[in-house]
Amino acid sequence: MAIDAATVRKVAHLARIKTPEDRLEPLAQELNGILQWIEQLNEVDVDGVEPMTSNVAQPLRLREDVVTDGGKIDAVLSNAPKSADGFFVVPKVVE
Amino acid sequence: MTDTVPNPKTIKGRTGDWEIVMGLEIHAQVASKAKLFSGAAVGFGAGPNEQVSLVDAGFPGMLPTLNKHCVEQAVKTGLGLRAQINKRSQFDRKNYFYPDLPTGYQISQLYYPIVGEGVVEVEAEDGSFFNVGIERLHLEQDAGKLIHDLSPTESYVDLNRAGTALMEIVSRPDLRTPEEAVAYVKKIRTILIYLGTCDGDMEKGNLRADVNVSVCRAGNYEKFKASGDFSFLGTRCEIKNVNSFRFISQAIQYEARRQIEILEDGGSITQETRLYDPTAGETRSMRSKEEAQDYRYFPDPDLLPLDLEQAWIDEIKASLPELPDDKRKRLISQYGLSQYDAVVLISEQAKADYFEAAAKGRDAKLVSNWVTNEVSARLAADGKDFSENPLPAAHVAQLVELIETNVISSKIAKEVFDHVWNGEGSPAEVVEKHGLKQVTDTGAIEKAIDDIIAANPDKAAAVAEKPQALGWFVGQVMKATGGKANPAAVNDILKAKLGL
Predict the structure, then answer these.
(1) Which terminus of chain A has fewer CB atoms gathered within 10 Å of its CB, N or C?
(2) Which one is the CATH code of B442-498: 1.10.287, 2.40.50, 3.60.10, 1.10.10?
């Protein structure tokens, strides 16, 4: 799979990473290099091998349906650039 | 042409007939105390951001832990939809940026949902049944809430709802009319309420539907069904978050008409997300979400696959309550009710329970009539449902017993019911207090009849030629006895006295 400047622009936009036009081409080359390196994995035959999801076989840990958290507005809002009356405040988004 | 019966599922256009095809995605909030992946409370009416953990707020390094009860609720729902339960499922990240989603991704299940295919049997308005295929049910997180009217230039964000567990129930494109779509949502809602896995409160947004609408030329849907080839169907538009039965129907009608207009003008439909505006009665494009419909799903590395033990699934299965379809069939066979009465009774679990409590040892058909007519109408007038019914079932049972044993007539029973509903005591007490006992004492009835005949000799003579005039006499006798005379006795005695 080859990545071109247009794909880099789209991916950058989806990730909300501001990328100047003159960086698109060099980034495309760098990303292609990374992808080619990773594509070496395709050389391994994994037919019939179950995907490994964890390095130690263990079940997913579950929690009980009990309220143990919440009521910490100050902590929740602590990183917000702007807040008011317990709300986060952001630039207007309208549907 | 042998087929002269018009197909009710087609819509007339300027250039010929069209058909609507729909698939629904129902979002049902899982009934749970805590959120899907955090220990923050789920609820309605708390102050802004009070029910938020740092996991929900997307703080760096916070890890999700799956709520076991939410998994159980999803499995229960899957079993209730007679669907396949997948013993291994997995959580994926659906990536997009929006201020109501602090992590920048929603945890959902795209590739391996917890529940697979099923079928739901739905009652149509005309009493017939149709099947709707279920494609899947998966668990996912809800987003937060944006408030736009607190400032002209800013939006306020409340994350209380963020991370609440939802079940998304995806149907096959098996729905063909607005009525079918509404009947399907009603059926799913009933099943969820029976199971106790979602409270079904649409006003609070705890149950809402995304409706995928497309139109195609009449006949093409059959070709799609036969071949499975989606190219026979039109391009679909998704109407997001419709939260009432009425709006679902209106939105579909508007959207189908809009698409037909475009196609008949030679245009084409663009696949997009639209919003129904109930005030304007129209759907409009949600441009902001259209731009980035690339969610870059991938397995959530914070969560291992979810493996379910068969023993646990069996345990959940054993705990299922009687489902609406089973209850309907049982009411018909056990109480001899009609299909129609049974459908009305099971539409609300509390209504069916109420009926069964009142029907013990009584005329079931009569009890069903009282429950589905008088009691239902009074509750509706007060804006209540059967779970808030102030009238004990024993009162309905006693009222029916009084009718069955000829203590009161059906007509007087309505009057008794009024008093009972107003809290004046049991039916027997009301009958006693207001002297509403039916007069079966033939002596008293005879006396009243004799008086009336004596006062109206001309009418009495005319009855011989015009037997319909008997009704007038019955009316007079009922009037004279304050409506309490046994109608059958009145008829018999009148006929004898008038020589009919």
Answers:
(1) N
(2) 1.10.10
